[in-house]
Specification:
This protein is of the alpha+beta class and about 500 residues long. About 30% of the residues lie in helices and about 25% in strands. The protein has helices spanning about 10-20, 95-100, 150-160, 190-200, 250-265, 285-300, 305-310, 315-325, 350-360, 380-395, 430-450, 485-500; strands at about 25-30, 40, 55, 60-65, 80-85, 105, 115-125, 130-135, 140-145, 145-150, 165-175, 175-185, 210-215, 345, 370-375, 400-405, 410-415, 425, 460-465, 470-480. Strands 4, 5, 6, 7 and 8 form a five-stranded antiparallel sheet that branches. Helix 5 crosses helix 6. The relative contact order is 0.06.
Length: about 500
């Protein structure tokens, strides 16, 4: 059996039907490595597992399970499968960039020109020595701060006795990034029942936000799930049962307003007091936005933890009503600009944590670097790009902030704006394959370069020239001054300012 993961149950059913004399072999290998690289005989190790392992390497083939630094991982720890040996293809025809990205120099071989193929498959070594595939690297997504294996979520859904098959995908729509589960049921199963069932076996923050029942799963011509054909999840509607029927008249208008604000934040048509904010697609960032909108609309300070403690909107409305009656709205101090004195500014709790970890490790760690690489096509105005970055740094104080001890406490010190100069590397004279490899190496090198929180700057910018009309821009920031959301802001501002400066606007 090859081409797809082999369920152990299917292998067992085959043995039961055709007798114990039947031998079932699971084969693994991508086209780039002559298809057959590993083989596993069903029944030899891997007992009690849901999927049949893919086994051990074939002759003249080397199989490695490596981390992102190309270091072997211990048995039981997941990593990516890399393949070496005589089985490898030369590369992709007329696609040198893709070839350089997937076929890498083999650090474990003494043979000149030896290479490894990066498969994109996540796996681990079992105690018996066989390799077990866990899914695709592109099926690992980060949601609400957690790294999620979509295959594991699918398996959790499929364990429900009434679910025939399912698939979990990450969608981006007006409700933001959210996990949506599509399932085909043997018999009628309510969404609430399925949601509760899945919640028993996964972390709450990683559970799908929406469940969509399908009559049948859309498939491609070779039998795989066609994710492009999956329908948009229906918009969330108000719950059929209104829990406000018994509420006092003073609470009803507040609840209506809370439900209206929550619907606006989540980008859905209607919500009722019976709806759960997080089940409707909410997460921590949207909860923060909800608290801010309630403050603007009602002038009441709702603690963020209140949304997590009372996620049902009717209960949250009661908390808001209590705040209004207690006059908490009047206690909210107006936001004002803090003085930028020589003693610096206080650090946030998150910044204090990151500063402490940096001190604990003695500096020199790149664990909290946030790198981004952008491939730029077309003529590039280097002067305009440098002026763009200078303006972005002027606009955002956090990009010219350092962190030092003042009277025994870490403080933020904001520097005056100054021109930003791009570190520039010209690779255009190299042959194309070598150029792509060198660019990949410099991208990795830049991402691993640590920051000095006390000296700064905590934003680095570098430009790689591949040709007259092709460049790679590298931006790296420390997590103490930015997050994933901030990187989106940075890219949008750079794009808008660069275009404006080029046009003389």
């Amino acid at each position: 059996v090859g081409g797809e993961a082999l369920p152990a149950g299917l292998a067992r059913r085959a043995r039961e039907r055709f007798g114990e004399g039947l031998e079932v072999y699971n084969e693994y290998g991508p086209t780039e490595a002559t298809v057959g690289c590993m083989l596993h005989r069903f029944g030899e190790g891997g007992a009690g597992r849901e999927w049949v392992p893919v086994g051990r390497p074939a002759a003249n083939t080397q199989i490695y399970v490596l981390d992102r630094h190309l270091q072997p991982v211990p048995a039981g720890v997941s990593g990516e499968i890399y393949i070496g040996g005589d089985c490898l293809a030369e590369g992709y025809l007329n696609r040198p960039g893709l070839t350089a990205d997937r076929f890498l120099p083999d650090p474990f071989s003494r043979r000149e020109g030896a290479r490894l193929y990066r498969t994109g498959d996540v796996a681990r070594h079992l105690a018996c020595g066989a390799v077990e595939c866990l899914g695709r690297r592109d099926e690992q997504v980060k949601v609400r701060g957690h790294l999620v294996e979509l295959g594991e979520l699918r398996a959790a859904v499929n364990r429900h006795p009434q679910v025939r098959d399912s698939v979990v995908v990450l969608r981006e729509d007006k409700q933001g990034r959210r996990l949506v589960c599509y399932y085909v049921a043997r018999q009628e199963v309510e969404e609430a029942e399925l949601r509760e069932y899945v919640a028993r076996s996964v972390i709450a923050e990683t559970a799908p936000s929406a469940y969509v029942r399908l009559g049948r799963m859309p498939l491609t011509v070779n039998g795989k799930v066609n994710t492009e054909a999956l329908p948009e999840p229906p918009e969330r509607r108000a719950a059929a049962v209104e829990v406000t029927a018994g509420a006092d008249s003073g609470t009803r208008p507040v609840e209506e307003l809370v439900c209206g604000v929550a619907a606006e934040v989540l980008g859905v048509e209607r919500l009722s007091g019976a709806d759960n904010f997080f089940d409707a697609g909410g997460h921590s960032l949207l909860a923060t936005r909800l608290v801010m909108r309630l403050r603007e609309a009602l002038g009441v300070e709702v603690p963020l933890r209140g949304v997590f403690e009372r996620p049902r909107l009717g209960a949250l409305a009661e908390l808001v009503s209590e705040g209004l009656k207690a006059g908490h709205g009047a206690q909210a101090p107006p936001l004002g600009r803090a003085e930028r004195g020589g003693g610096g500014l206080p650090v946030s709790f998150a910044q204090r944590r990151l500063w402490f970890l940096d001190q604990l490790e003695g500096g020199g760690s790149a664990a909290y670097n946030i790198p981004i690489a952008l491939r730029l096509l077309g003529p590039l105005d280097l002067d305009a790009l440098e002026r763009t970055l200078t303006e972005v740094v002027r606009r955002h104080e956090t990009l010219r902030t350092t962190f030092k001890l003042v009277d025994g406490e870490p403080r933020q010190l904001v520097s005056y704006p100054s021109p930003v100069r791009l570190a520039f590397t010209d690779l255009s004279k190299l042959e194309r394959v070598k150029r792509e490899r060198q660019a990949q190496s410099l991208v990795a090198e830049e991402a691993r370069e640590p920051f000095d929180l006390a000296q700064g700057p905590l934003l680095r910018a570098r430009l790689l020239r591949l040709s007259a009309n092709e460049h790679v821009a590298l931006f790296t920031m420390h997590h103490i001054v930015c997050d994933g959301w901030s990187m989106g802001v940075l890219v949008k501002e750079v794009s808008a300012l660069y275009e404006a400066l080029r046009q003389g606007e």
